[in-house]
Specification:
mainly beta; four-stranded antiparallel beta sheet; four-stranded mixed beta sheet; 39% strand
Length: 158
């Protein structure tokens, strides 16, 4: 048995070695380091005025009453009110029933964008609150937004 494990371990190490340190985006394109200007320093005395700022029109959206099994969506509109390009690195949710989609290209200063959040209420009942974390090149780097809904059974309120 040890003779079978050794080649497997070597193969795993080689896969990790050859794929771990690539500067490629999700679509395989090379990431350019010149689009990220981060004035932060280890001392914390950087010029934060040069950073992008993400400003949402609404940070919370309430869908009101929805029927269990229904999928609803909302577009959170935001604006880059900072002085450099806004790059959204990721958008995470507190539940697999909530799916975000967000712009993959930089948002220039003064420009708007949308983060679409879809909520699938299957298997959910009662008051639901789902937290969404927008990770970007801002300070702080995580901005919270949230959706809410009251999920009722298809036969009426329960």
């Amino acid at each position: 048995m040890p003779k079978k494990i050794f080649p497997f371990l070597i193969a795993c190490i080689l896969v990790v070695f050859f794929t771990a340190c690539r500067n490629k985006g999700k679509n395989g394109e090379m990431l350019s380091t010149d689009v990220v200007e981060n004035p932060n320093t280890a001392s914390g005395k950087g010029d934060l005025g040069k950073l992008p700022v993400i400003k949402f029109e609404d940070e919370v959206h309430d869908f009101g009453k929805i029927i269990e099994g229904e999928t609803v969506s909302f577009n959170f509109k935001f604006k880059n009110t900072g002085k450099t390009d806004l790059i959204i690195a990721d958008v995470t949710t507190s539940c697999g029933c909530t799916v975000p989609s967000f712009p993959k290209t930089p948002i220039q200063p003064g420009m708007d964008g949308f983060i679409k959040v879809s909520f699938n209420s299957s298997g959910k009942r009662g008051y639901q609150t789902k937290n969404i974390a927008v990770v970007a090149n801002t300070q702080p780097n995580t901005t919270p937004i949230r959706i809410k809904a009251q999920v009722v059974s298809p036969g009426g309120e329960k």
